[in-house]
C-alpha cells in the first residue's frame, strides 16, 4: 500500500472541515472571532511511552490525550489535531485499522477532527507526533505564572495510577486483585485528562500545569514561573487505594514524582470545590516542598527527565 | 543536559510572541482579522531525507523549508512553526548549537518565529517534525482543485537539482566541475522554495501544488483534484544545465519524476510571465502526460513513494 492509499483508507474518514479530505498540501483553520488559538505538540514513541504489545487503539488514544492534557491545563477547548506517523516495517494494515479506530472513538468523545499530517517509514521505533489545537476567549489562556501567596493548590483525578501500571509491566512484585491491576494498566495505556473541565478551570485557576513529568516537578514549573513557593501535603494527594496497599510508605513520594498522570494541577483561591482535590498552599519563597507526616520528604527524584 | 536546560539554551532564544519563552505547556496564536490560518506538517529523518554527515545547519533549514514549501504553494505567508526533535544519543551539544544556528538564520530570512515544540530521546534515527503556520486572506488558500481546461501549467525555479545532488551522494559516476557538483549538493541539502512569491501566486494561480514527490506525480494531484488532464512539454522543464550534460537523454524524465524539488507548480491563464516557466497545458480528460520530442515518454516511476 502506498502513502496515498494508506491516507485515503485509514485517515481521510477522520478528516474534519478545513482538512480538504487530506488531499491538499495544507489545511485551513478559520479564525474564531473573540478567541485565541492554543497549540501544543507532543510525541510518543514505542519503548518509551508505550509498548509494542499495547493494543493499537490505546496507543492512538494516548498519542491524542497527552496533547489534550496540555490544552486542558491551559483552559482551551480542543477542536483539531495534526498527526505525524513514522511507521516501522512491522506495522501491518490490521494495526492501522485498529489505530484509526481508536482515533475515531476519541474524536467522537472529545468533539475533535483530524486536520492533516504526514506519514513515513522508519527503521527506528514507531513514533507518533500529534499537534493539537484548541480555543480560549481572547487573552484567556491560563498561564503557569499567575500563582500568588495565599492561593491553594489543587489537582484533578488520581495521581500515580499510570506509574502503578508501568510498574506492573516492569514486573514489580504485587498481589493486586485482577480488577485493580487492570485499572492501573488502563491508566498507563489511556490517560484520562479532564478535558471537559477546561472551561470551568478558566474561571477559577490563577495558574495551571499539565501533570506529565511528575506532580512535584510540574508544580515546580508553576512555582518557578510565578515566583512563589508551593507546599504539598502528601497525605492529601489523591492516590488510587490499591497503590497505598501495594507501595506502603513509599506510595506518596513515588506517586508524586512519577510521570504520565495527565491530570491538571492548578492554583486558585482557598475553599474552591469541584471535581478536584486540595493538596497544598502557595506562599512567598521558591521551590516545592512535599510534606509527609508534617515533615519535608526527601524525594527519590524530581520527575521524569528525557535526558 | 536535561530537556529543560536544552530548550532554554538552544531554543528559547528562537521563541516568538505567543511562545512564552517556551516555558509553558502550549502557545497562543491570536486571530488575524480577515485572514485564515494555514497549517502543514512534515517530518524529515536521517537516512531518508538527509545524511548523518550533513552539516546541522543545513538539516535545520531543510526541516523548515520542506514545510515552507507547502505553505508557499497554498499562497500562505509563513509566520510561526513548532519543532519536534527526537534525538539519538550520538547528538552532542555542538550539533545542537549549529542546528539552532541554522534555524535562527532561516527565521531571519523568512520572518518567522518558533512557537513551541517537543524534544525526546530515540534509539532510532534522528527525526525532526515541523508544523508550520502561515496566513492567507479569508478563503484565499490556493487549492489543488481549481485547474480548468485552457489553463497553462507553470513551475518556479529549477527541477531536478536535488535529485542530482542525491545521485552524487549515491556515488553515481560523473565528471561535473566542482562548482556544478557543489550547486547540486547544496539544493539537495537546502531547498529554496519560492517563499516570497506566495502573495503574487494567489493573484494568478487557479491551482497549485508543492513539488516534493516529483513534478509529474505532483501535477497528477492537481489533475486528479481538478478533474482535468495535464500535458507537460518535457523540453520546457527548467533543468540545471549540468544535469542535461550529465544525464543526457534521461535528464528530463529523471528530473520530472524525482522528489525533493520544493518548488511550486501551478496552473493559470496562458501568457503569464514572472519568476516561473511555462511547462504545459491543461485539457479535458485525466492524468498527466510527459511529452519528449513530441511523443509520450514512458516514465521510470511516478514520483517518490514512502511505502
Distance between the termini of chain A: 37 Å
Helical coverage of chain A, percent range: 25-40%
The order of strands across the largest sheet of chain A is 7-9-6-10-8-11-12
Rg from alpha-carbon coordinates of chain A? 20 Å
Descriptive report:
Two copies of one chain form a homodimer. Chain A has 307 residues and is an alpha+beta fold. Chain A has two domains: 135 residues, 2-Layer Sandwich (60s Ribosomal Protein L30, Chain: A); 145 residues, Phosphoribosyl-aminoimidazole Synthetase, Chain A, domain 2, CATH 3.90.650. Helix content of chain A is 32%, strand content 26%. The first copy, chain A, contains nine helices and twelve strands. In chain A, the strands form two sheets. The first copy, chain A, has a seven-stranded mixed beta sheet. In chain A, a hairpin with a 2-residue loop joins strand 11 and strand 12. In chain A, helix 2 runs parallel beside helix 3. The first copy, chain A, starts with a helix and ends in an 11-residue tail after the last strand. The mean pLDDT of chain A is 94. Chains A and B meet through strand 1, strand 2, helix 2, strand 3 and strand 4 of A and strand 1, strand 2, helix 2, strand 3 and strand 4 of B.
Amino acid at each position: 500500500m502506498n502513502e496515498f492509499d494508506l491516507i485515503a483508507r485509514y485517515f481521510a474518514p477522520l478528516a474534519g472541515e478545513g482538512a480538504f479530505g487530506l488531499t491538499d498540501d495544507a489545511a485551513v483553520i478559520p479564525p474564531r472571532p473573540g478567541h485565541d488559538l492554543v497549540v501544543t505538540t507532543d510525541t510518543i514513541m514505542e519503548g518509551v511511552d508505550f509498548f509494542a504489545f499495547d493494543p493499537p487503539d490505546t496507543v492512538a488514544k494516548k498519542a491524542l490525550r497527552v496533547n489534550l492534557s496540555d490544552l486542558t491545563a491551559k483552559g482551551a477547548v480542543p477542536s483539531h489535531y495534526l498527526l505525524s506517523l513514522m511507521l516501522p516495517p512491522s506495522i501491518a494494515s490490521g494495526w492501522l485499522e485498529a489505530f484509526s479506530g481508536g482515533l475515531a472513538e476519541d474524536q467522537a468523545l472529545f468533539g475533535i477532527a483530524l486536520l492533516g499530517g504526514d506519514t513515513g517509514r522508519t527503521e527506528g521505533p514507531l513514533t507518533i507526533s500529534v499537534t493539537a489545537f484548541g480555543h480560549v476567549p481572547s487573552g484567556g489562556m491560563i498561564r503557569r505564572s499567575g500563582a500568588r501567596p495565599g492561593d491553594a493548590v489543587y489537582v484533578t483525578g488520581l495521581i500515580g495510577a499510570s506509574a502503578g501500571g508501568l510498574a506492573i509491566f516492569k514486573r514489580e512484585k504485587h498481589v493486586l486483585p485482577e480488577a485493580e491491576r487492570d485499572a492501573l494498566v488502563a491508566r498507563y495505556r489511556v490517560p484520562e485528562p479532564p478535558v471537559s473541565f477546561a472551561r470551568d478551570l478558566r474561571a477559577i485557576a490563577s495558574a495551571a500545569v499539565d501533570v506529565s513529568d511528575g506532580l512535584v516537578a510540574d508544580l515546580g514549573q508553576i512555582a518557578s514561573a510565578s515566583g512563589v513557593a508551593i507546599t504539598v501535603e502528601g497525605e492529601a494527594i489523591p492516590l488510587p487505594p490499591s497503590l497505598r496497599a501495594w507501595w506502603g510508605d513509599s506510595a506518596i513520594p513515588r506517586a508524586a514524582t512519577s510521570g504520565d498522570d495527565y491530570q491538571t494541577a492548578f492554583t486558585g483561591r482557598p475553599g474552591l470545590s469541584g471535581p478536584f482535590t486540595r493538596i497544598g498552599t502557595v506562599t512567598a519563597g521558591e521551590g516545592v516542598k512535599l510534606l509527609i507526616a508534617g515533615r519535608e520528604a526527601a524525594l527519590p527524584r524530581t520527575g521524569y527527565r528525557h535526558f
